[in-house]
Fold each of these.
Amino acid sequence: CHCEDCRKSTGSGKATIIIVLEDNLKISGNVKYYTVIGSAGSKVSRGFCEACGSPIISSAEGFEGTKFIKAGSLDDSSWLTINSNFWSSTVMDWSPLDSSIESYKQNPE
């Protein structure tokens, strides 16, 4: 996701996210949450590791039952394949889109 909110929350040009149904997810350990208004105007809750502050998980209003896992928080992300860009309308020149994969101007409908 290349939206302004994800750029600010990651300190980079984008957030690499894995979309997971909440029923298929188990988190162990303590997660501290912080809620903001995201680029689309909805509430976004972000979960951070309570011990080190690393971003781990997000949920967003309008996407109930779905969680967004920060790929960089995984112990092993070697299996991950990136297959889409979100918020291509706000991409920064210094962090260009991967033009070989599907892009959405904002959140997909």
Amino acid sequence: MFNRVRNNGMFSEKEYKGKTIEEATKYAEDGGFIVRVTETNGQSIMTDMLDINANRLNFRVRDGFVVDVYGG
């Protein structure tokens, strides 16, 4: 069973982009999302493509700030 998430799971990049990873993570988790960092400073972090989660947000981070966010 999924946790209740903010806006029925809908999100906008502008809600997260430009925030520190700490700020973005807190905002996401307060909204019921699970967070995963998939890239830091241009270096991809290994993830399992079979591990898709409808209430997870994936962050790409540069110098401690979120530069991209996508679901899954």
Amino acid sequence: MTPRFISWFAGVGCFDLAFLRAGWECAGACELADFPRRVYAARFGAEPRWRDLNDVTTSEVRDARAHAWVAGCPCQDM
């Protein structure tokens, strides 16, 4: 089974890129800000699965079946 990760505060996908290059699969990503979401979409072909972390349900996280979570530090005030 391919290991899977969830990327919280994904930004432009730096963690995602590293994990994908290491052979992992992204089970879902979350990013609120519009500009990083557009960059992420240009880089990976789709925007992050979730926009606001507050709207992600526990069942969505459980159903993603991720082996690891990665997170970028939120980098700006909104």
